[in-house]
Amino acid sequence: MKKYKIYSLLFLMLMLVNFSCTDQLREDELELAEGVSQMTNPAYLLSGSIVNIATYYQKKGINEDRFNAIMLYYQQLFSVKSQSHEEFTKAPENWSSEYKLLYDAQAGITKAEEAGLPSTAAAQQILQCLMFEYLSDIYGDIPYTEALSGREGNIKPVFDTQEMIYTGLMKTLDEAVATLGSSSDKIGGDLLYNGDKQSWIRFANSLKIRMLVRSYDAFGGSKQNELQAAAKALYIEDNTFNAALVYEGTSSENSWIWGPANNGEEEMTRRKPSVPFLDLLKANDDPRILAWIAPALQPWGYEDATYTLTDYYGDSYQINMLDSDGENIGGFPIGETYVGAPLTVAQLEYIYGEGSGSGSYDNYKLSSYTNIFIEDANDLLKATLFEASEVSFCLAEAAQKGWITGIDASQYYENGIKQNMRRWDIKESDISKYLSENLLPLDNNSALVAILTEKWKSLFTQGHQSWFEYRRTGIPAVVGDTPDYVSLPFPLRWRYPTYEVDNNSENANEAVNRLGEDTQTAKIWIIKGVAPVE
Amino acid sequence: MKKRNMQFLALFLFSLFTGSILAQQNVTGVVSSNLGDLLPGVTVLEKGTDHGTVTDFDGKFSLSVSGSEAVLEFSFVGMNTKNVTVGTQAVINVVLTESAEALDEVVVTALGISREKKALGYAIDEVNSDEIAMGGTANYLKNLEGKVTGVNITSLSSDPTSSAFVVIRGATSIAGVQGKNMSATAQPLYVIDGVAVGTGSINTSGDIDAGNFMSEMSPDDIESVTILKGASAAALYGSEGGNGVVLITTKSGSGMKKGIGVMINSSFTVDQAYKALPVQSEYIAGEAEFAMDLFGKKSWGPHYSDVTGNHDQWDMVGQQFVNEPVTRRNTENPFLSFLQTGFTATNNVSVVGNYKEGNFRMSYTNMVNEGVIPYTKTTRNNVSFSAGYNVTDKLKVSGNAQYIKSYTPNKQTVAGRSSGGVKYGSLLYNLAASTADKQPFSDWTTPWITGYEGLLQNTPYLDFEDYLDNGDESDRRNYRPYKSVNPYFVAREMINTFSRESFIGKVQLDWDILENLKLTGRSGLNSASFHYQRRTPWNVNKYLLDGRFDTEDSQKVRINTDILLSFSETFGKFNVDALAGYNFRISNTNSSYLGGKHLARPNDFSIGAISKDNLETSYGWDTGKYSSLYATASLGFDNMLYLDLSIRKDWVGITELQKNSSFYPGASLSWIISESINKPDWMSLLKVRGGVAQVGYGIPTYLNVDNFGIASSWNGTTVGTVYGSVVNPDISPEINTTYEGGIDAKFLNSRLNFEFTVFKKVHSNQIQDIPIVSSSGFSSYRTNIGTVASDGLELSLNLVPILTDNWTWSIGANFTQYKAKITELDPAFTEKWIGYADGSMLRLKKNEVVGGLYAEEGFWRVQSGKYKGKIMLKPDTGTPIENDDPDNRDYLGNINPDFMMGFTTNLKYKAFSLNVVMSYRNGGVYISETAKRMRDDGKDPWSLSGDGNYWEGGRSHNGGFAWPDPNDVVYDVIRETNEEYGYVSDASYWNGVYVNPTSDYDSQDRNLPDDAYILNGEDPNTTWYSVVPSIVGNTWDFPQTRTFDATFFKIRDISLTYDVPKDFLSKISMQAASVSFIARNVYLWTKSGRNEDPETAFSGTGSRQGVAHYTLPSVRQLGLKLNMTF
Asked: Which domains does chain A have, with CATH numbers?
């Protein structure tokens, strides 16, 4: 009996020990989880890169003041032109979101290569090139060859020269094109082109054309043959090859930036299309004004009047025009329904006065964007990486400048306009009408102005590209026209992020020494000696 | 009690073998203590002979002695030995007095091994059951305050039920330097009856102090708490013991009086807040003197005597808007008038039995606390059972179990301004803000507007006229509940409920295989299941118009099994105590969260009331497995030299990839000098000791590889993510090495005891995630970043100045000092400033003292001339030139004390005993964020007059500069100068200078001739009036202006006990009875002169050690305690 007791107690103790063994399931789960986390399908990583880079790029393209306000697509109601210049005097804190996207693509490349999927790796490389080019165009010299190597222990990468970066990126693009042309593997997770390798080749070549045109002068014209070859290769000729992702609109991540899912209405309503932008759309009777711009809801008129206007897509707007009593409202337009945000503080303040809209963010005296821009999703709202119109305008410029030969610049020019209008669902009849009646002719003296002004319009929603090109070309001049009160010069780059300068000082300082000084007006390699903008 | 009885048992057994001895004279008598206890088991020996006996159960003895010259020696453990010459007496009744301390004191050390204290080579502190149960607090850890050296115990708040941080010999983690909670990173390991149950005794949910089972044990169930401070003591516990170990021994039936006994302990205290920050009541709500706003929360409005006419106000009782004259704000202190008198009632009953075959103890404790914050309450029930059974002479089984159920129907966030990230403000923040202008707080108790329960909060800060008029839902949504919240509403309607069921138990088997070889098997389990929910009703504020509902559930299980083999043998003058063991531990944690905002209906707090889109969920689990082998050996020589050696090896982790092992050695030496010399009579003990030990933090290997996951999908296509941080491939485990040395001495029959310890703790190879530049592809890098070394000394002194039959007076004092410094830092990360809290920064730098705070923005001061030291102002605004130059940051001070002292004193007269515990902290600083908020709101009486340092002026009625008459020419000048900042209300200004703007000098030049500067305030025409309140920077934004000395003195406990005499008790069949008057948190003195307990800055639930932020005012407890033993 005694012994039995001892054994039962010992048994109880063993049970307690065994209790822990019932947790074997947990341990299995942990091992499984660890294993799984090492083995994700490279296709998921490609879809991840596409989604994350495209949505990032689009967000910057429409909503970043340092591209879009400076390029006059809008004025922030609380930061008119002087402030948008001043924005550039401040250095961003970090470039972590950009390098994170670059790293994710890098991880995708590694995984795809390990899995024997060279085409998937090539697609990732193209996306990575786009991001590197974007960062380098903003800052100039950036960490490139040594970047993204924290795993190997390099936590302070050197800054490479922009020339080296451009050269390297274009080489990578060539290699990606070659890989896509020769390998037989399938591209999974391809939200852009559904696995169509030819489309990826077009995307890569278009990116190369953009870079060749942008760096043509910086390379001293030495890349002419390459540009000529690229123009003859496959590129994004029309919108069916656009690198763009239609928003799904079911969560904040997959919805348009200004839609309700992202609480974007406030963001949109405090951004108002600027006077020069509207003037240009109005002057040529551009049908895109009805597609993009909504009328002011309470504009000044000669008498009180109520009427309805409809935009290009059929949304109607109730207008309550207010009687100005015949006064000259601070030089403000009277009787106009498309009213741009002025660039001067004085005027803006005046508009603010009595009768402004409901609340400080909204201002019914000014035009806004059409209602499609406050939707979460719409067939026309796309997270865009590259569009046909941009390549056409690049080639038009190249042809006009004689960098490429064989095709007349006007063909590219007209195609650029056509592709952009089609992208916004403008009716063919309206396109033909615009091309035949309102097109700026490519005469010798103003051909570049015509091409680049149209390009500026077409890059609405792609503000970064617009700014990159303006710095190089100075067209349209209205962008750089600074009112008297704007004391700061037109900004040509962003200052290096403070966190990088503080914590990778040796390498950052080396880059700054090459640049001269880390200011917003220092000229980076790509515009050094060529930029007309001062 | 325990020791005495064990001794008794031994002697009792001995007496059975003692034969009767023929003698010439017979003496009988009774031995009792000075408290009236009859003492059984006292050794009575005729000196110089082997005649002896022991007293029986009733303290009686009978002995034959050799003659009248015989001297009888009465000795008993814990009592002073007494010699009595027999003479002619046939009856000798003796009273023994308690000795200050026994020499051969036995203490519990690592792994639950009892050792003679004199043999230890390291410092150890033990607090016994009487002291633990005395305070009447619900948390036994708080009763250690002031009584132990080297240990800093900080209550999270003055709430009697709050948790407490225990930090042993200071925090040495760089994680603390990096802004994490320094106390939380330095928590010791808790070991209950030999079973390690985990580190830390703090648990928070939604910023609520939700307690932890480790601190929820009933103080009445605890026999002793022993603190192992150094690594030498703790080395056998491996990595978890790196911050020291708190050993808890629970009460059992073993060693008690044979037979059955019943004990009843009851205490009841009345809890009342007695010290709170003052709030000014002279100025009416508003943004400025000319901008009264009776619906606002700021009190920068006009003086009450300047307000005339009728004004719209919300009547809290009539619940309507009225147009009436404004009366002066009630002068009551809003904190004290809001807080109510709470109580804490504890009742414990226990039954013990002790028999030859075994023993048992059963105990039940019930604790109820009604909080000082209205509508808050905490209840707790503890049931414990322990039993031991002697299967054979050589085999003993024992076990114990505790079940703790705590239930808190409602508890409030006291610290901080937000709760769970929701900006509705903490209760006390709202309280300070809610100084009603016309109605006393007693009118505020109705939380809802009648007829709109669950829908409309009753508060003067809301504007819901439209909704009341037409009841249109869109008007409810449109109305802007703003500025503040009725505190009664928060306390009663924003309910935090939680409950925890904990189980702690073990079974143990002791087998004496041979006389000197013993096997022990022990397996302990502790589990806790926690449920939490928070109800946030509709209409809390404009951010949460539709409320929130949050629920959390978690389960923790931990099982610890040890097999130990111990060996003990004496070889001549040498003796060996050796032990080897294997430990296996497994732990599991699950937690889940479910909740969200936008409740479908008012007062519907259920998951179903949250729409699918708003539902937030999370689930987490963690599992761990650890194996260890350990061994220790103590070699003693001639009872005077002891060498202790210990080793431990740990294997950590579950998967092959994680497996990691580390090895830690330890050694200590003690030499009892007094045994090896011919010691003088006045010396009882002199011992020197020294030790060194290493504890490694057995970390699992972190994988330096990418991890991949699935984020979501886009149009049906799966989208992946990449994550994972970079780990230095050569990472090594953290190592904590402690060196300590000390002297223990006892003099004059142990009436003067002295212990002195110096230590050095070197915490090296600290593993941290260091932020790195993102161009590396990552944001952080996990590596060994450096070493923190802490030096300190501990001193304790016990003195018994008076010891007579009737009087005993003892005094204890202890002194603790330590300082931790970063001694090594990976050069890649030197010189880093880290944002801390409330405008302060920490510095990651070699030789930086841990705990040093700097102001993020310093003041720019004149360097020479007559204005030397004056703040420099901007010539165009009159506000300070902020200086964020890293080389010129203002040093605010160190949040750690220069030293801490504790005092205890005990005075006994016959059956009365008076006990007092006090503590003193010297030095260190804290930042008061409360001051910032109260100043910003114009509530701080500070705002009435200039502080004479940073700003001049103050409110006009209190000697400040009156705003000039609008008809005065000066008025226009001032208006013009300050046009841009039309807010200026009081004519107050920064006490500084600015460079004359008409000169060519650089406005930041600090070394100009005197006449280049204009002294602000000298001439109204050149004065910038922009201090209070202003939109361009306020004095209170700078932490420099509200950093205070943290020096304080506290009387923590006073108790007066009356022990009912034994002879009286025996008549009513009772063994013991006592009644005590107890008082806690009796008195607080602060050097800063603020009515703010500096300790509250070191508690809180967040990472903000050293920042006081609306913590509960000091709470005093007064009550009675009753103990009865049958």
From this structure: 5-258+462-515 (1.25.40.390), 270-374 (no CATH), 388-460 (1.20.120.840)
